[in-house]
Amino acid sequence: MTFTLPSELADRFVKSVAARHRSRYLAEAIAQKLEERDLRLVRACEVANRNLEVRTIEKEFDAIPDEIRDPWSGAKARRSVVGAPRPKSRVRN
Questions:
Q1: Please, what's the b/e burial string for 33-49 (b: 16 or more CB within 10 A of its CB; e: otherwise)?
Q2: pLDDT in tens, 52-69
């Protein structure tokens, strides 16, 4: 994995964290940031779930069956809608 840091941040990082601890430091920082992000998402979902309008929309979606029927089985050709087929040979100018 390769990534680039802004030079000021990279300088601070190199000066502040010993070389042998840098990988662990970055791993912990990334894990913490991802955990914070997950918690914000959970809180946003909880707030949305308390909203009556959101719950009403969710119930409407829940009423839609999970299984989708194949819309093309047994469908008739619709030549009258699409028009007549093109001639087999086309003449170009």
A1: eeeeeeeeeeeeeeeee
A2: 998 899 888 888 887 776
pTM of the model: 0.55
Q: Which amino acid is at 26?
A: L
> Considering only CA atoms, which of 34, 26, 33, 32 is closest in space to residue 5?
26
Residues with Cβ within 8 Å of 25's Cβ and at least 6 positions away in sequence, in order, are 17
CA dihedral 39, 44, 46, 48 (to 10 degrees): -170
CA dist 91 and 87 (Å) reads 10
Tokens read off for 71: 């819309």
